[in-house]
Amino acid sequence: MTTIALGMPAARRDPRDAPPTDGRPAVPELVDRFGRVARDLRVSVTSACSLRCTYCMPEQGLPVPPREQMLQPGEIGRLVGIAVSELGIREVRFTGGEPLMRHDLAEIFAASRAAAPGIDISMTTNGIGLDRRLPALLAAGLNRVNVSLDTVDREHFRLLTRRDRLDAVIAGIRAARDAGLTPLKLNAVMMRETLADAPALLRWALDNGAQLRFIEQMPLDADHTWARDHMVPASELLAVLGQAFELTEVGRDDPSTPAEEWLVDGGPATVGIIASVTRTFCGACDRTRITAEGTVRSCLFGDDETDLRGLLRGGAGDAEVADRWRAAMWNKQAGHGISLPGFAAPERTMGAIGG
Ligand code: SAM
Ligand code: SF4
Predict the structure, then answer these.
(1) Taking each helix axis from N to C terminus, what angle separates 73-87 and 318-330, rounded to the nearest 10 degrees?
(2) Residues 122-134 pLDDT 10s
(3) Where does ligand 2 bind, in terms of residues with CB under 6 Å?
(4) Which member of 194, 272, 296, 306 has the greatest number of CB atoms within 10 A?
């Protein structure tokens, strides 16, 4: 059996080649050599975005591949169908870049819904334009959204996202709430520049019926400015929130759920904290990712990718596509390794992988 050092990326291969499968048990699921099983599929549909969050995108945005290199709605639907019916995937979330930048997003959802009628379809979005697009997306099969919002301070929002679009994001969140999309979750990356705004953001989320989750900043920004001694650890955020709210730890019911929950002022409202850097949960990771160009990515931090688009376009059957996907996941690395000496950030950044 090939062994992979904890957190170290596998050697780079040509993504068109099948990854090694020595020792892989003959089970249908997406298992890896550390005993984890992937049940949660993230599908990135573009690297384009309407914002330029400093922890994610470069000022000029990321290059967007030509249309023919991106998966088309029918291809995405086919992969979702294979994932659910052949590979044991139970949740599908669309992401990017910004999914709403795809004009054919409703077609993508409709194709996925047709291929996997019983599955929950959710989307992570910055919310810009969601109010206008929501009816068509709901009709196509969308069930839930997570909207990213880091601060409700207009000037801080403008500086962090390099765009003055706070009102548009809020309109998107309110449209999702008014459409009854529950639970409505908000994601906020903990940044030093907006740390003092955290209590106001939590108050805003509670007032607007949304569940807020803070996420530790990971070294996945295009500008490579992440620094351990500058990032805000969960412990520091808890201290800031603790000055405005009474927080009681609830913990986490499901070990594969990265958010640790805290009751706010005795509950029932909660706030979540995803301490991806300081309390790594890689050992319970159950994710598999498809990039907008149709490669499988087994880990956010592993640049080793396996191409499925070529198989789809070359006439491969579902069983062959599923086998290639299993082989890709078998080679998943043990963890992100951010704290290990010699850690190097992956080549693709968050917006190009799909968070
Ligand atoms: N554009 C959509 C959005 O912002 O929700 C979807 C894509 S975005 C890459 C997905 C999630 O990744 C967002 O919640 C975003 O805040 C988070 N994210 C981006 N860069 C990050 C980083 N360096 N560390 C932690 N989370 C990050
Ligand atoms: Fe765009 Fe989302 Fe990245 Fe912000 S986090 S730049 S909204 S892809």
Answers:
(1) 70
(2) 999 999 999 999 9
(3) 49, 51-53, 56-57, 96-98, 126, 148, 350-351
(4) 296
How far does residue 2's CA lie from ligand 1's centre (Å)?
33
Distance (Å, whole) CA 122 – CA 343: 32
| Domain coordinates in residue numbering, the chain | 31-353
User: At residue 71, what is the residue type?
Assistant: L
- Looking at ligand 2, which atom is closest to the CA of residue 189? 5
Rounded to 5°, the CA angle 296-212-149 comes to: 70
Classify the C-alpha dihedral 142-96-344-54 as positive or negative. Answer: negative
pLDDT in tens, 164-179: 999 999 999 999 999 9
- Centre of ligand 1 to C-alpha 193, Å, is 16
- Provide the CATH number for the domain formed by 31-353 in this structure: 3.20.20.70
Calculate ∠ Cα 324-330-332, nearest 5°. 115
Beta-carbon contacts of 236 under 8 Å, excluding residues fewer than 6 positions away, are 195
Q: How many CB atoms lie within 10 A of CB 171?
A: 17
In which element (H, E) is residue 248 found? strand 247-251
Closest CA relative to residue 274, chosen from 212, 220, 226? 212
Rounded Cα gap, residues 43 and 121, in angstroms: 11
Residues in the chain, pLDDT under 70: 1-11, 253-256
- The counts of H helices and E strands in the chain are 10, 14
